[in-house]
């Protein structure tokens, strides 16, 4: 069965050849994916699976927060959003609350979509 190995190799190559902007997009996509898995796990009454995936989202959000370049004024706004999301994820994990995770996921989708638009504009050479 070479197929799983081929997919793994493709995924590794995709990460290794991605631009920094594409890596950020992949992280947003991963956070959204893990958030959705956690929501499904809560609905399936699987608290361990929910916990594991919420922690993955927390780590991605923490990474975003820790890598902010605070020399840009907009970074303070992102810091506040990431701090809020971290607090909500902790609350969602303690309560195993799918509603909170849906809220977090919606914020992550909005941020991802904005990031995709920035990437598109930069590719087209437009001002952002």
What's a quick, concise take on this entry?
With 128 residues, the protein is mostly helical. It is built from five helices and no strands.
Number of strands: 0
Shape: globular
Number of domains: 1
- Binned, the helix content reads over 70%
Mean pLDDT: 91
> Low-confidence segments, ≥5 residues, pLDDT <50?
none
- Largest sheet composition: none
Using only CA atoms, what is the Rg?
16 Å
DSSP strand content = under 5%
Give a description of the structure:
By secondary structure, the protein is mainly α. It is built from five helices and no strands. The protein has a single domain, classed as Flagellar protein FliS (Four Helix Bundle (Hemerythrin (Met), subunit A), Up-down Bundle), CATH 1.20.120.340. Helix content is 84%, strand content 0%. Helix 3 packs antiparallel against helix 4 (74-95). It is globular and about 50 Å long. 20% of the residues are buried. The model has no long low-confidence stretch (mean pLDDT 91).
């Amino acid at each position: 069965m070479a197929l799983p190995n081929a997919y793994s190799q493709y995924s590794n190559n995709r990460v290794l050849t991605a631009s920094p902007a594409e890596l950020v997009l992949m992280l947003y996509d991963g956070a959204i994916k893990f958030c959705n898995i956690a929501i499904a796990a809560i609905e399936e009454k699987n608290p361990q699976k929910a916990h594991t995936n919420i922690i993955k989202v927390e780590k991605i959000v923490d990474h975003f927060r820790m890598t902010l370049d605070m020399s840009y004024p907009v970074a303070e706004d992102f810091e506040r959003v990431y701090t809020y999301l971290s607090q909500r994820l902790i609350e969602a994990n303690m309560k195993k609350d799918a509603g909170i995770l849906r809220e977090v996921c919606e914020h992550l989708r909005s941020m991802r979509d904005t990031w995709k638009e920035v990437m598109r504009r930069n590719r087209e050479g437009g001002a952002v």
